[in-house]
Amino acid sequence: MSVAENIEAVRKNIAEAALRCGRRPEEIILVAATKTQTAETVREAIEAGIDACGENRVQELVEKRALGAYEGKPLHFIGHLQRNKVKQVVGAAALIESVDSEELLRLISARAGALGICQDVLLEINIGAEESKSGIEPERLEELIACAASLEHIKVRGLMAVPPVQQYKGENIPYFNKMYKLFVDMRAKKYDNVSMEFLSMGMTKDYTEAIECGANMVRVGTAIFGERKYI
Prior knowledge:
9 helices, TIM Barrel
């Protein structure tokens, strides 16, 4: 199947999942995870109607952006952001989805201030308590939000999580439910520079379940582009 046909199928699944839980399909933002894809393939996905591009690697982001790969849709950075790469991502990405420390928040804010902008971010939660993954522990979320609220050039737009790899359908539902509760709890509190609009969770194997649990942003790669080919 072509990229366009795959996106059509993903959109159908998104719509069905949204309707099953009494939501409107247009509420769900489809982020195409474009890691290892060429600029041409990214443009093909944009033409087929994705909502945003999600890049995992700073080097790929820089190279593809120089080729105009993301023109026409917002660019999200969805991978682990190293401190020494902040300057290359702030201002280039409309949304940095993977912020997980006060140090990173401060570096992003400082860079955004130097550029005269306010950088939108999501705070990443290590919801599965996996040592191999980045993200802040759920119990430390409020202190991270408090830090963000004190920074002039940061705007927290919501939360993001990468749950454990799902072996069987439904395994990640408890993690998704926990994330949604965190999202709702934080949304009820009033902090400066925090709006809690987006809950980004769910990938190719579990995005429909994530939607049914409250996600309004999903990051889908394989279901759009096929299995990745690593060189």
